[in-house]
UniProtKB/TrEMBL annotation:
Main location (coarse class): cytoplasm
GO biological process: one example: regulation of DNA-templated transcription
Gene Ontology MF term list: DNA binding
Keywords: Cytoplasm, DNA-binding, Transcription, Transcription regulation
InterPro entries with a match to the protein in the record: Integrase-like_N, TACO1_YebC-like_2nd/3rd_dom, TACO1_YebC_N, Transcrip_reg_TACO1-like, Transcrip_reg_TACO1-like_dom3, Transcrip_reg_TACO1_YeeN, YebC-like
Family the entry assigns: Belongs to the TACO1 family. YeeN subfamily.
Domain TACO1/YebC-like N-terminal, residue spans: 3-74
The protein, known as: Probable transcriptional regulatory protein BKP35_00765
Subcellular location: Cytoplasm
């Protein structure tokens, strides 16, 4: 199915690299999602999903609660969801998702990050057609065979199931995200190593060493931008 979730290690490294920035990004995403619906995760599935994702990154409950209280308090801050597409070294492909209260600022910062690090911005649709929106759910202590049996009993079709390290990874259609989680919960699973709605490349590329170093600098520059929430790409960094 193309690029697998071989970035569990990347995800863990990101946690260790800058937890305060990760917490800040989740706080904003929770606030924005709560403002767009009910500030109650039990009646707002989108909000419930964001909070579940935040928990896989060990975002403290205090930060989650603070964002929910801010949304309940009637704050008038308004944010736009933006998606940028572009190319890195050697034609590598990148998607950048952002939340911003200043579209011009964010566009300028993203463009600058591309230009200063060997990349260039593309037009809408120039990259995303090579990616598939995918639900990725990871659970420790299970294997692919028993997970397949569990999901078949629950009448849930998925794209793929793989064993990776000590974790089983399920790849499914985005609308099956909650169904897969509920199937795991029915057998006592309460914690998820991965719980993401992501963009997976249909195929990945391997860069020569010099290009990979430049590519990693570009990804770091994009992820360091305050308004950027997610960065997806098609490069195998393993």
């Amino acid at each position: 199915m193309g690029r697998k979730w071989n970035n569990i290690k990347e995800k863990k490294a990101a946690k260790d690299k800058n937890t305060s920035r990760i917490y800040s990004k989740f706080g904003l995403e929770i606030y924005v999602t709560a403002k767009r619906g009910e500030p109650d995760p039990e009646s707002n599935q989108a909000l419930k999903f964001v909070i579940e994702r935040a928990k896989t990154y060990n975002v403290p409950k205090a930060i989650i609660d603070r964002a929910l209280e801010k949304a309940k308090g009637g704050s008038e801050e308004s944010y736009d969801e933006l998606r940028y597409e572009g190319f890195g070294p050697n034609g590598s492909m990148i998607i950048v998702d952002a939340l911003t209260n200043n579209v011009n600022r964010t566009a300028a910062e993203v463009r600058s990050a591309f230009n200063k690090n060997g990349g260039n911005m593309g037009v809408s649709g120039s990259v995303s057609y090579m990616f598939d929106a995918t639900a990725v759910i990871g659970v420790e202590g299970k294997n692919a065979d028993e997970t397949l049996e569990l999901l078949m009993e629950a009448d849930i079709d998925v794209r793929d199931i793989l064993d990776e390290e000590d974790t089983v990874i399920v790849y499914a259609e985005p609308d099956q995200f909650h169904a897969v989680q509920e199937a795991f919960r029915s057998v006592g699973v309460t914690d998820f190593t991965v719980a993401e709605l992501t963009m997976l490349a249909q195929s990945d590329v391997t860069l020569p060493e010099d290009a990979q170093e430049q590519f990693e600098k570009l990804i770091d520059a994009l992820e360091d931008l305050e308004d950027v929430q997610q960065v997806y790409h098609n490069v195998d960094l393993g």
